[in-house]
């Protein structure tokens, strides 16, 4: 049996062996034998445990009582000890008589997935008596029971934002494997996903699991139980709780954050490009100004975006998107141009400095770009929409940001916008493509090859933007078609990738704010549904602009996919909103807004208080 008092008192006994006689002349062979180990029960893996090794003639070679012995427990097969990294546990013991050595075996830390008990032979070194080993196992060790004990961060997490977490425990295996981490809400729900959400976690060590919280919002401030299932189906013991905060934003945007001065900007992408936990901005200055580049703005943590360099100098760099292209954990950038040989792929060094990688993917007259894993190999592939329609392309990622031509998804007219979502519930990503004044839907075969769907989308003007998301809360992806005239339409997915027109035409009653240019979905008011922000143009055309009202409008969702005008008009009547993006810029847990004002050549930033 274990004795913690015995363990605590052994340090005094171990000192008796200090300076034992004959230590400079170890015997060439052993003069003693090993016969048994006490306790005869299995040694636990999660605590240090006192032991006695029984033998015979331990003092025969002249080693006195109090001599320090080296004791090794060797597994008979594999490397089960110390989290699966070693076949041997080494410790010291004290010779207390001619037939006993007293010591403490350290925590074995045998992973829970190892079949136990693990048998081990025993080997003892004495200064004069030499080395003796048992021919058969004398000790047995029990694998760890997988257990979780703590969740970090211990402070409440913004429910809207996906946040890195660490689970602390023991017996977690296999190291490098993927655990299923489930958050079960107590008294609330995860927006659009019910009371329970499961995410993947990396088993980083036998004592830690690392992952990212679900994000997407919670219905109220709430706690959630955290449970873990390891590869193979073993469930970790222990009860830990994570706390989540509902988004505090009202959905009414105010111009209290500093805007940015651009040089004929066309698009803005938001994301943490330097790894400091704050949302930064990357802006395409491709509207024909003298700069003609991509500009990086780093967030100082308060929502103030500070200029931090440029890249991709090209007059036609008018569309860009962010994503981790090479699997190194930071956000890289893909830039598309209008008929240019400038490289499309720009890799991030982790600090927000971008360097070109490879050459141009073809110098196509591109109007739109999306990143998505279309072939199911866990890296981001590239979809490019063309002005010429029929040339819409897929480029397949090799996992290291190297792109090779894949298939095509041709349209008849210009593809000003793309959107990606699993519309038919078959666990792969399908593609919406603007086709002049129409929208084409392409269904994925799971390998990245697309076939045209017969679905028709009846629209009344040139399509400026496409936004996919579950607007009616029924678990499938709907689509918002941002039109250049006649108002924006909402199509609801009725299941299996079939869509019905909801009958909504979103626009100003005067007709001035019906010329849609861009759109973005997000829960801006914390009520667990996707609201809509629309950027509008004056006399819509992707390449030129005329009269009218180009202010940004905000539309609230009632939860069923029915949108109502909030009455907000962001920008001036001389503005036109080329692009809109949502992100938590000031770190308060809700979605703020960035817009590209093509009239003032600026990026306007709005707080969501």
SSE map:
Elements: H1 4-15, E1 33-38, E2 49-56, E3 68-75, H2 81-84, E4 88-97, E5 100-105, E6 118-126, E7 130-133, E8 139-141, E9 147-152, E10 157-158, E11 164-170, E12 178-186, E13 196-205, E14 208-212, E15 222-229, E16 240-245, E17 260-261, E18 267-271, E19 280-284, E20 294-299, E21 305-311, E22 319-323, E23 332-336, E24 345-348, E25 354-356, E26 366-372, E27 381-386, E28 393-397, E29 403-408, E30 418-421, E31 430-435, E32 438-444, E33 450-452, E34 463-469, E35 478-483, E36 488-495, E37 498-506, E38 516-522, E39 531-536, E40 552-557, E41 563-570, E42 577-583, E43 592-597, E44 602-606
Parallel strand pairs: 10-16
Antiparallel strand pairs: 1-2, 2-5, 3-4, 3-6, 4-5, 6-7, 6-8, 9-11, 11-14, 12-13, 12-15, 13-14, 15-16, 17-44, 18-19, 19-20, 20-21, 22-23, 23-24, 24-25, 26-27, 27-28, 28-29, 30-31, 31-32, 32-33, 34-35, 35-36, 36-37, 38-39, 39-40, 40-41, 42-43, 43-44
In short:
The protein has 609 residues and is mainly beta. Helix content is 3%, strand content 44%. The strands form nine sheets. Strands 1, 2, 3, 4, 5, 6, 7 and 8 form an eight-stranded antiparallel sheet that branches.
Walkthrough of the structure:
The protein has 609 residues and is mostly beta strands. The chain contains two helices and 44 strands. The strands form nine sheets. Strands 1, 2, 3, 4, 5, 6, 7 and 8 form an eight-stranded antiparallel beta sheet that branches. Strands 9-11-14-13-12-15-16-10 form an eight-stranded mixed beta sheet, with no helix packed on it. Strands 17-44-43-42 form a four-stranded antiparallel beta sheet, with no helix packed on it. A hairpin with an 8-residue loop joins strand 22 and strand 23.
């Amino acid at each position: 049996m274990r004795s913690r008092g015995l363990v605590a008192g052994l340090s005094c006994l171990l000192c008796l062996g200090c300076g034992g006689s004959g230590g400079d002349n170890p015997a060439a062979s052993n003069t003693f034998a090993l016969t048994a180990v006490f306790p005869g029960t299995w040694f636990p893996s999660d605590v240090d445990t006192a032991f006695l090794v029984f033998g015979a003639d331990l003092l025969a070679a002249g080693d006195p009582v109090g001599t320090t012995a080296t004791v090794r427990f060797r597994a008979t097969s594999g490397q089960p000890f110390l989290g699966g990294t070693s076949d041997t546990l080494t410790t010291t013991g004290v010779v207390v008589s001619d037939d006993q050595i007293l010591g403490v075996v350290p925590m074995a830390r045998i992973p829970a997935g190892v079949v136990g008990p693990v048998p081990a032979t025993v080997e003892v070194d004495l200064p004069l008596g030499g080395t003796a080993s048992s021919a058969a196992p004398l000790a047995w060790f029990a694998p760890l029971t997988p257990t979780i004990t703590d969740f970090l961060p211990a402070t409440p997490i913004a429910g809207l934002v996906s946040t890195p977490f660490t689970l602390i425990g023991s017996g977690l295996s296999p190291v490098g494997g993927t655990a299923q981490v489930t958050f079960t809400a107590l008294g609330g729900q995860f927006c659009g996903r019910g009371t329970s959400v499961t995410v993947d976690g990396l088993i980083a060590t036998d004592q830690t699991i690392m992952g990212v919280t679900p994000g997407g919002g919670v219905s109220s401030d709430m706690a959630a139980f955290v449970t873990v299932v390891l590869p193979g189906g073993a469930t970790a013991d222990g009860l830990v709780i994570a706390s989540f905060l509902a988004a505090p934003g009202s959905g009414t945007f105010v111009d209290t954050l500093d805007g940015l001065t651009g040089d004929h900007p066309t698009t803005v992408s938001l994301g943490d490009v330097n790894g400091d936990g704050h949302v930064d901005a990357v802006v395409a200055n491709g509207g024909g100004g003298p700069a003609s580049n991509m500009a990086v703005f780093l967030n100082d943590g308060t929502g103030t975006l500070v200029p931090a360099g440029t890249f991709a100098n090209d007059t036609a760099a008018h569309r860009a998107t962010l994503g981790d292209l090479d699997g190194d954990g930071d956000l890289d950038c893909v830039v598309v141009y209008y008929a240019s040989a400038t490289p499309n792929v720009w890799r991030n060094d982790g600090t927000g400095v971008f360097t070109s990688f490879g050459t141009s993917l073809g110098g196509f007259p591109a109007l739109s770009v999306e990143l998505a894993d279309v072939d199911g190999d866990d890296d981001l592939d590239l979809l490019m929409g063309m002005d010429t329609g029929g040339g819409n392309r897929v480029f397949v990622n090799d996992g290291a940001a190297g792109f090779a031509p894949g298939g095509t998804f041709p349209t008849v007219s210009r593809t000003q916008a793309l959107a990606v979502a699993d519309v038919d519930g078959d666990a792969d990503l399908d593609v919406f493509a603007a086709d002049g004044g129409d929208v084409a839907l392409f269904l994925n075969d799971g390998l990245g090859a697309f076939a045209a769907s017969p679905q028709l989308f009846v629209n009344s003007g040139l399509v400026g933007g496409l936004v996919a998301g579950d607007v009616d809360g029924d678990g499938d992806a709907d689509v918002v078609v941002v039109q250049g005239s006649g108002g924006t339409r909402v199509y609801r997915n009725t299941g299996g990738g079939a869509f019905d027109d909801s009958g909504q035409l979103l626009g100003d009653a005067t007709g001035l704010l019906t010329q849609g240019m861009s759109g973005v979905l997000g829960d801006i008011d914390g009520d667990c549904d996707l609201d809509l922000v629309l950027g509008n143009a004056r006399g819509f055309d992707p390449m030129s602009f005329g009269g009218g009202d180009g202010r940004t409008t905000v539309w609230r969702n009632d939860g069923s996919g029915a949108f109502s005008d909030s009455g907000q008009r962001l920008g001036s009547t001389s503005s036109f909103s080329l692009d809109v993006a949502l992100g938590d810029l000031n770190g308060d847990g809700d979605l703020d807004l960035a817009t590209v004002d093509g009239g003032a050549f600026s990026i306007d930033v709005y707080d969501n208080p």
